[in-house]
Amino acid sequence: MPLLGLSAIYDTLGRHDKSLVESGEALRLNPANGLIYSILAADYRSLNRLEEARATAQEALAKNLDSVILRWNLYTLAFLQNNVAGMAQQVDWAAGEPGMEDWLLSGEADTAAYCGRLVKAREFSRRAVASAERAEEKETAATYEADSAVREALFGNTAEAHKWTAAARRRSRGRDVQYESALALAIAGDSAQSRKLADDLAKRFPEDTLVQFRHLLTLHAMLALSRKDSPKAIEVLRAAAPYELGRFPSSLFPVYVRGEAYLAAHKGSEAEDEFQKILDHRGIVLNQPISVLAHLQIGRAYAMAGDVARAKSAYQDFLTLWKDADPDIPILKQAKAEYAKLKLN
Q1: This prediction's pTM
Q2: Pick from 64, 282, 85, 11: which is nearest to 74 by CA?
Q3: Domain of 155?
Q4: CB-based contacts of 312, cutoff 8 Å, min separation 6
């Protein structure tokens, strides 16, 4: 157990190589523990060692060490390898199982949103919330609502973002739910309410590493951007750098916000580096909205840096991923308009 605790700390800090060492040693000491297999598989995935992650998960299944965490790992691996049938298999496994079904339904919501199918994503999120409620998992249900709020805000649907945020906040004042609620509100333009939630987090969690060195710094950077103070946003996020590759709610979001700050400062090359970091760490960011939006944002960075050819290619990547997207998503309309202008060059 101490080894697993150390592994979890390294994961939170984004040191997945060190986490892998600890979880590997834990498995050597206790090869009959399914949780250790799941953690080890996640460590491999975070390092983009997908085949080793899959082999680890399959070994656990062969030993009848099944669990929802293991199935979640298999789902995310299937997503990363574009294996639609593999994802469906894990969803089917969890169907109707209290405390398990909601995990995979939430995954389906993120996958649908990754492809721009926002109407489907909302439906999966509602089903995930309802499933968590039936399992009497109040905090988990609130987490799914907060996740949805961030997604809607990123895609430009401010009214939906406010609706999901209100639902999450009625249900919970938990650390991560409040952080994502504040994040969604900041993106949606409600700086005053976001700042209020951030201040409350700072007071309630004065010694929490994630709150002080990741959550609050991300929120303060977002609020600086709302004031059009991109230098301040960049400065604030320097302290978050040691933690930004960690696995936690809204993984790599400090990187995404830093990229946006560089775009706002008209520093295309620096913004490119940040969004490329997201594209290079798919095993951590998985099917979160920023994983797909990074393609669009790096296109904007290339365009700002004057690299029209690479900008066009990045926009094409995004639009291909969203070829079946709901047509009324605000950020999709913006992307199409920007790409049309690029094609004139």
Answers
A1: 0.95
A2: 85
A3: 95-343
A4: 299, 339, 342, 343
